[in-house]
Amino acid sequence: MPNSSPDTVNGTHAFKGLGMIWRPALEWLFWAALVAVAYAQTGNFDQEISVYEYGADGWPRAICFAILVGATCQLAWQIFSLRHQEPNAGGGRDSTSDGAVPGSIWSIAQRAGFFLLPLLYLYLVARIGFYVTTPFFIMSMLALLEVRSVKAMIAVTAVIYGLALLVFTRLLYVALPVGRIDPFYDINNAIVVTVQTAF
Questions:
Q1: CA angle in degrees (0–180, nearest 5) for 134-137-138
Q2: With the C-alpha atoms ordered 137, 142, 146, 150, is the resulting torsion angle positive or negative?
Q3: Residue 35 pairs with which residues in a beta bridge?
Q4: How many degrees, rounded to 5, is the angle at CA 126 between CA 170 and CA 35?
Q5: At residue 101, what are phi and psi to the nearest 5 degrees?
Q6: Peptide bond preceding 183 in cis form (omega within 30 of 0)
Q7: Cα 148 from Cα 16, distance rounded (Å)
Q8: CB neighbours of 140 closer than 8 A, spacing ≥ 6?
Q9: pLDDT for the residue numbered 39
Q10: Which of 117, 109, 131, 108 is nearest to 178 (CA)?
Q11: pLDDT in tens, the chain (199 residues)
Q12: Distances (CA, A) of 27 to 58, 78, 93, 105
C-alpha cells in the first residue's frame, strides 16, 4: 500500500486545522453580539456624576470593551493553536490538549458552561448582589477550566475578589449591586462598609 507523502499529510492536517476555525469564530461572534447588546443598554443610564468624570455608563462600557478584547485575544490564540498543532502521532481520534475528546458530553457541557455561566451570574448579581455572587462565579469558572487544586481555586478566587473589592469599593467607590433579597442585601452592605472603613 503506498505511503502518503509528508506534504499530503501536512496539507491534510492544515486543512483540518483551518476547517475547525469556524468554532472559535462562532464563539467570538457570540461574545461580540452580547457586548453589542450590553453596550446599547448602557445608553439608558448615560448620566453625568459630579464625583466621577466618566459618568454612570463609564464602567459598564469599560467592561464591555474588556470582554471584547478578551474574546478577540482568545480567538487569536485558538487560531494560532490550530495552525501550529502537531498531527496525532498515533493516528487515533482527535483530542484536545487535556485529553478530552471533542464532541464528548464533558466538552459540550464545558462550552455551554462558558456561555451560560456569565448570563446566570448577571441574573443573580441584580438579585443576590455582586459581593456575595462573585466568589462563587470565579470558582465556578475555575472549575470549568479544570482547575483541580482546591488551594489554587481558593487562592485565585481570593486574589481576584480582593482586587475587585480594593479597586471598585475602596479606591473608586463604585456602587456595585447589593441585591434586593434578604439576607443577601444586608450581607452585601456589611461587606461594603467593612472594605470602605478597613485600615
A1: 90
A2: negative
A3: none
A4: 90
A5: -85, 125
A6: yes
A7: 31
A8: 113, 117
A9: 81
A10: 131
A11: 455 554 444 555 544 555 577 778 888 888 888 888 888 877 766 666 555 555 666 667 777 787 888 888 888 888 887 777 644 444 444 444 444 555 578 778 888 888 888 888 888 888 898 999 999 999 998 888 888 889 999 999 999 899 889 888 888 777 788 888 989 999 999 999 998 887 5
A12: 26, 11, 24, 18
Question: How many whole angstroms separate alpha carbon 147 and alpha carbon 149?
Answer: 6
C-alpha–C-alpha distance, residues 182 and 160, integer Å: 26
The C-alpha atoms of residue 199 and residue 83 are separated, in whole angstroms, by 51
For 100, residues 6+ apart whose C-beta sits below 8 A from its C-beta are 106, 107, 110
CA distances from 37 to 14, 55, 120, 127, 141 (A): 35, 19, 16, 21, 23
- Cell numbers at 91, concatenated: 493516528
Cell numbers linked to 197: 472603613
The span from the first CA to the last CA of the chain, in angstroms, equals: 77
As to burial, measured by CB atoms within 10 angstroms (0-12 exposed, 13-18 middle, 19+ buried), residue 179 is buried
